[in-house]
Amino acid sequence: MAKTLDKVNVVTVGVGWMGGIIAAECAKAGLKVRGLERGKARSTADYQMIHDEYRYAIRYELMQDLSKETITFRNNRKMRALPMRQLGSFLLGENLGGAGTHWNGHTFRFLPYDFQIKTMTEQKYGKNKLSPDYLLQDWGITYDELEPYFDKFEKTAGISGENTNPFAGKRSNDFPTPPMKRTPILKKFENAASSLGYHPYMLPSANLSEAYENPDGQTIGACQYCGFCERFGCEYGAKTSPEITVVPTAMKTGNFDVTFHANVVEVLKSGNKVTGVRYVDTQTGEEFIQPADVVVLTSYVMNNAKLLMVSKIGEQYNPDTGRGTLGKNYGYQILPGVTGFFDEQMNVFMGAGALGMTIDDFNGDSFDHSDLDFIHGASISLTQTGNRPIQTNPIPPDVPAWGADFKKASIENYTRTLSIGGQGASMPHKENFMSLDPDYRDAYGVPLLQLTYNFTEQDRNMHKYLTDRIAEIMKEMGAKTVVPGNPISDYDIVPYQTTHNTGGTIMGTDPANSVVNTYLQHWDAENLFVVGAGNFPHNGGYNPTGTIGALAYRTAEAIQKYSKTGGSLV
Questions:
Q1: Domain coordinates of the chain in residue numbers?
Q2: Strand ranges in 117-186 using DSSP code E only, listed in sequence order
Q3: Class of domain 3-46+55-565
Q4: Does 525 score more than 90 pLDDT?
Q5: pLDDT at 542 over 90
Q6: Sign of dihedral through CA atoms 40, 43, 48, 54?
Q7: Which of 6, 239, 420, 459 has the fewest CB atoms in 10 Å of its CB?
Q8: String of b and e for 522-555 (b: at least 16 CB within 10 Å)?
Q9: Is the dihedral of CA 108, 498, 503, 290 positive or negative?
Q10: Is 429 an active-site residue?
């Protein structure tokens, strides 16, 4: 029988960026907050021996244990979904900090177009630009409404960047710290993009260019350009993460504590409110009930959606009827790219997760789509993340993949190869959604989340168009051999592509087409908030973290208001 604990004002399910932001802001306001983290504690001190590519990048030391919980996947409803047995297409974080520990640090703001995509697309191109199978909708808030919260997140994280992107939304303040180093490799991209008439700018980075103290008094170190960022923690405390910013800010108030090894398996609901959550101690198997005035789901996209589904809160999306919203509008990202082989050697082994140069000339609606068979686009970047030896074996397409010629070409091209990639926006489609698997369960007896997803015609058209544009830039950079990425056909859950999953718990102004309102308050339970990239009605041409962070700060304000007034906030 589950043991009932003392009630708290706010409980967060997950303690990464979202859980940390909610905890810090609510605890500073005097609310008693408890974070439930199914993983273990960790901090900068745990990363002193982090430069182990095999342990962290190949064997995924920091990631979710799929032997205990995974998802099932299928391309369409006619297929049987099967469990994802190894991490591949995306990497699910676990332990304190979540994916905010092993991220690269790219910190963009979604474009003004993203927030009003349906309205703006129809005004410019008409209502039939996309077929009705694409479930396009506005977010319910505008960029200008969210801008103060973007600013707050960037100041908390100390983001390094430059305000020179002509396509970005207006900023109330400059970046907190200057951009990272313009290396010779980045200058090569900058010169080529500029000569083609594009507008390159330094990528906004959470790998900081200089030491910084944020408004809460937390210190973030300066990046050492060691090349061990994504899939790794930072031993210098120079890659902004929840463990060195929002979590200690919450802790020092005395109003916040974390329960580790606490895997939440159900949100408890009574009437139009939730009463708390039920969780399992993953070490002892004991069950506990944590009562709370406010429950905030701050776990990963898929875990947030799954918890609502198993708790029977909200109506599951039905692709046959179009009814229901839970699990709807799942979106991934489209990743056009090109590899270039050069004659000269370059220091490709040095870098940082968000050391890069970007253009937005083909992102959002920055370019005319009138004669194109897709909408939106991608940010296009050359990033210098630091090529590590196990996963880096660049060879031209005419070289065999084994033997003496392979070895010779690998050594020759290791320091002579560059890649340019795009992060393409995925538009929601009626056949791409999340649901509960009818057959498979996790280690705690809870049904697995089932993902039904495939690339669409929109995705394939965008990928081809952007690949051609990227190849033009690589040629302008002087590559002797330019190798475009292969066209996309069916989505495969391997190999790794991006961890930027969105949708499933989408936000909006109407319960008929959204799970939560614009404050991320659940339509069916006024004291339940759901925070994460699952709130995005569609994916964008950027990494989602900056936009999630802004939404989290706005929701933290809403929770404080709710704790005083109660009721719906809209």
A1: 3-46+55-565
A2: none
A3: alpha beta
A4: yes
A5: yes
A6: positive
A7: 6
A8: bbbbbbbbbbbbbbbbbbbbbbbbbbbbbbbbbb
A9: negative
A10: no
